[in-house]
Structures are given as C-alpha cells and as structure tokens.
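Please predict the structure of the following assembly.
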Amino acid sequence: MPPASLNVTYSGRKGPMLGLALKTGFLTIVTLGIYRFWAKTRLRRYYWSAIRPGGIPLEYVGDPLEKLLGFLVAVVFMAFYIGVVNLILMYVSFALLNGNVAAYLLSFAGLAPIIFFAQYRARRYILARTRWRGIRFGLEPGAWGYAWRAMVHWGLAILTVGLAWPLTTLWLEKYRTNHTYYGDLRFVQGGRRGMLFASMKHIYYPLGLSAIAGGMAAAFENPAWIAVFVLTVPWLVYGLAYWRADSFKRLTEAKQLGEMRFRTAPRPWTIVGIYALGWLLIYLVFTGLMIVIAGVVLAAVGGTGFDFENPEQFEPVMTAIAPTVVIVYFAIFLGYRAMTHAWITLPIAAHFAEVTRIVNAGDLHQITQRDRDEFAEAEGFAEALDVGAAI
Amino acid sequence: MTDSPAPPAVFADFVGGDRAVLTRVSVRLSAEGLDLSPPDGKTLIWPWAELRAEPDQADTETLVISRSGDRLSRLYLRDKNVQAQLRTRAPHLKRRDRAISIPRLMAWAGGAAASVTAIIFVLVPMMAAQLAVMLPPEGEKALGDTTFEQIRMALDETGLVGTPICEAPAGNAAMQAMYDRLNPASDLPYEVQIHILDHDMVNAFALPGGRIVFFRGLIEQAETPEEIAAVLAHEIGHVVNRDPTRDALRSAGSLGVLGLLFGDFAGGTIALFLANQLINASYSQSAEATADDYAHDLLDRAGVSPAALGTMFERLLAEHGDAEGIVAHFMSHPQMGKRIAAAQAAVVDGRQYGSVLGASEWRALQSVCGDAPKGQQDPDLPEKKPWPGSD
Ligand SMILES: [Zn+2]
C-alpha cells in the first residue's frame, strides 16, 4: 500500500537540457525540419522523466515515427484547407476590407475553431502517451465540444477586454480536466465561478492605477503622476507571475482524482526570479558572442586592408559573407531556443513540480489500466498549424 | 565475478502495467538474463537480448528498463553495479522497437506529396485565376500597396529602411510622358503608378493594382528611350491581364501550404521566401506571350517600333550570357529567341516609327536617381547584377 502523501521530486538539470536542445535543434536544421518530430519527442522524454511523484518518473512513450505519420495524415487534409482558405481569406480581406487590420482579425476568427480543435486533439495524444507507475493517462474525445466552448469563452474574454479571463480559464480547465483520466479514474475539476478572480488582483490593481495616473498626468502635468504611472509596470510584472502561481494553486487544489487531492504552493517571486535570471543569462551570452564576432571581423578586415572610405567595396563583401549570415541566423535561432529550454522552461517546471504533493493517495493501488488510444493522426493538426504544446 | 554461483540479489521497483502498483522485486543476473522475483514468488525472466533502456531520461541515477514486446512493464533499477553489468551484457539495450510500419508511412507520405502537388499546381492556380478577375479595383490596389512595401524592405540589404525611391521630378515626369504617349487608359480600371527604385538590379515588374516598378539598373542598361517604353508596354500588358494579382493570390495559397510542410524550424525563412517569390514572379509562358503581344500593339499604336522590345532582350542576352539568365528566369528563358523574333515580326512594313522621348527628357530619365547618365560612370564599378528577361 502506497504512503498517504507523495511528494514530487524533480531531477531535470540545466546542463543536460541545454545539450539535448542544442543537439536536437541542430539536427532539425540540417534535415530541413524533418528531425523536429524526433527532437520534440526527445525533449518531452526528458521533461516528463524529470517529474517524479513519489520517486517514480513520469514516462512519455510517444513514437517520433507516429508523430511523422500523424503529420502526413494532417497534411493530406490540411493542405487543402490551408491552401484554399488562405487564398479565399486573402481575396476576401482585399476585396471587402482593402487589406486593413480588420481583415487579419477576420482571418484569425476563421482559423480559431480549427486551432482549438487541434489543441484538444494534441492534448489527447500527449496524455495518451503519458504514463506513471505503468498506467496510462487519457483524454476522452470531445474536440469539437471544446472548440465551440473555447470560441464562446474567448469571445467573452475579448468583449470584456480581458477582465473575464479568469472565468474563461476556469471554464476551459473544467472541460479539459473533467475529460482527463488516469487509468480508469476520471479527474474532476472543482471550484466556483468566481474562484480565479482573486488571482488576477495584482493585474487589476496596477492596470486601474495606471489608468488613473495616466489620466491625471495628461490633465495636470504633475511629474508625480508620471512617476506613479511608471511604477505600475514592475507591479504588473509581479502581477503576471502572481496570476500564474495563484491560478495554478487554486486550480490544482480544486482537482480531484478519486479520493486523491493535490497541494501546491508556487511562489510568484521565484517565478519572477527565474525569468529575470534566464533572460539575463541569454542576454549575456548573446552580448559576449557579439563582442567575440566583432573582434574576429575587425581582425580579419584589418588583415586584408579593407578600405572603409570606399563604399563600393561593400557589395562584393556582402555577397561573399552571405552564407555566413545565413549560418549566424540559424545559430542565433538555435541558441535562443536551447537557452530558453535550459534556463526558463526547465527551472519553471522544476519549481512547480517541487512545491506540489499528492495527498490521500492510499487507494492508488486500486487504479487499473486503460486501453491504448491508437490515434493515427497523433498531433498532426496542431503540428501543421504550429499551435502545438511548446514542448 | 559473474561466475560465482549465486550473485547477491539487489532490489528494484517494478510496475506490471495492469494496476498502479509498485512492486519491490529482487533482481538477479543469470545466464539467460534478469531474474525478477516479486514477493509473491512467481519469477519473471527477461532475456538479455530483449532488454531495452528508456532513452533521454532526466534522472541519471536510475535506469528505466523495459522488455521488447512488453509495452507496459518497467523496472526502475538504481544499483550502479547491476546497471554496469546490463550495459555490457545486454546487446540491444539502446535499440528502439518500431511500432509503425514503413510501407504505411510511405503510403501516407505519397498521399501527402500527391495532395500538396495537386493543390499547389492545380487547385490554387485555378482558383487564383478565377478570383483575380473578380477582385474589385480597390482591393487590387490595397494588395499592391502591401506587396510594394514588402519588396522595398526585402531588397534593402540592411532590411531596416527599404530601398529608396528615385524622386527626381524631371525624370519621373519623363517616365509619365512616356506612359501618356503609350496611353493604355482605355484598357485599365485604375491609374498606373510607376516607381523607379534605386537598385542595381536589371529588372522591372508589375504589381497588383497598377503599380509598375523599374530598377535603376534597367534604366542604365537601356540605350534608347524606346527600349524603356517597350518594357513599360510589356509590364502594362501584365497589369491589363491581371497577372500580378493572380500571382499574389496564388502565392498566398501555395506559401501557406509550404509553411505547413516546413513547420517553424527556422522562424521567418518562409517570409523571406515569400518576398523573393514576388520579385522573381515568373508567369507562365502564355502570360508572357500575351503581355508581349499587348506591348507590340500598344507600341505600334503609339508610333514606337515594336522591335525595341526585341533589341532590349537581345542586348541583355549578349551582354550577360546564358548561364545567369537560365538561373534567374528558368521558365521563360527558353522562349527568349522566340520573343525576340516575335517583336521583330510585329513591325508593320512601311510604317514610319518615331522616338518616344526628346533628348532632354531622356537625359532626365537616365539621371532620375541622381546618378550621372550612362557613359560617364566609373569603369571600376563592380559588375551589375545581370538579370535579363525583365519581367
Ligand atoms: Zn513579363
């Protein structure tokens, strides 16, 4: 019989993640994107296996070839949709609206149901390929139901300029969670309608204050109001981290799996710190590289006696270094992605995992296996639309 | 040390995949493989050749072992000594068992390729041709405005400010005089706007909504104003036939499909490709022939010899040779000879043809970008980018 309370430990480390992200990213670029199915699978295996509730790692068992197959299946259908719809949207946007901003919004609205549909299907695939203690997770079919609900709730959030976002988040989380299974046991998302509004308080307050301060500054030209206006920016940054931590806590602690409950306590300042440190490191790496490259270029130019006074020399030089420029472009792209994984995504995952624990887990051993969800399309649609999970 | 009769057993966590139960099994190494004995006594034997280690695991202390053919069972092995034994004695520890059959993958790959080909080369061009004719003039103009700015940005080597437009009033007035002389207004639903861009490229092209773009390189290459008038007439032919609109709609559809195939493996590469595609717009051979025919008529009506189109092509061909031309205009190039012949055949016997611009206007046009007219140039300048075929 398992212990009543299970802590979550995290065993992912930044160095190995940086190495893995660089290696898989490089292979993705040299194979013109084909390796991306393997790259994503390998990163997921690492991220999943790092999370260990009760000391046993989660396992991601997705197969890259299955992802490739799913992608090909999606291409057969989506190529038609994307080709024809893009063309028609372009036509409509220029025929009726002369290509203004409304046209882009319209084209997004046209794609939105498909995007929500694809996201739900991708979640179904990912959960179907996730295991813990040898038992599969699963998501019941219901992608169209999710798509229309998401349209309604997002519409509400947009109409209220984002003020109703906590309600949107809760409703959609309820739909997703209540369709999620671990083995034969279904998750239940509890929580009353107003539950998440308090999580947004550090976003509402600075926004309100900045509106007042901005109005006052415009009316009275008093520098104090401008100072207040500027000071609301760091408050808002804290507010975003607070929202992330507090909404996660409220949602997680209102989730039920049979008799099991979850306790968690993510800290907003830790989240702010992880982002600040991550971006600082990325900034330092790129600045350092720029200095090194500038030094090398200057040395090379000094060696050949390049004449800065004669601008006509630039053109052949530009032609000569064009391949280098392409390589540098890919290197920056690749390096940025790998560093984001190692210094932001991974520490954030680590923090959320380490502050979470499962309580009342005494009946865990009674949970039985669920059937394999075959699902030939895998994440193909989300992959094709480029709206899949970030990892 | 492996030939001792009963090596000491170590313990490891084991999951069987039917219930979320963690079993503590004793692990013994034998000649056949791993002997796993759960407390209830029924020993499992996992043969050496069937042992697999899960890859990309975050926790380097634990080896997650599975058995080929058994999708669910896992052994979480922490003992360093046994791990080392496994690495030397299990021959296929790193092998991955494939669940997807290659013929099935190939079938879908073939389906995807067929679908994409049919959409890019049949469906999208057909729809684009239909919609281009239906697009109202205001819509075409908006489309042209957007693409014009994109092209200016794409051609600027710094990518920041856009290629400058040559503003000299006298030169632009000369260009306008040339247009008025050709007087195609009756064929067009909108005014034609002619821009001269300060760029070395020897090229000109038409955009949707009646914008025609000349590059300084082309104006410098021309020996007589009639040659410029011939190119202008040819581009007006494209505008009258809606070729640029059709092409823009077509590339909106087909680039969407290409973006689908490549995913986001390199960020904005697709956008660069789009701009490039627009500049090198290669219309079908019949579209070129139709534009040529239109140009011949227009020139003849304006009293300018249609042969000028031929002389321009001929000289560009002679100066820059074949190789570059084939790269630049793969599709239209083989017809070059035919097009020159057609231009000469369009000359009406016995008719008197005049010149399209006076000498001072022609000089103004040649120095529209503020440069010295041709002939006084510095002979040390780098070779102009050859770009014959001016579409
Ligand atoms: Zn042409």
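The CA atoms of residues 279 and 345 of chain B lie 30 Å apart. Chain B touches chain A through 75 residues (CB under 8 Å).
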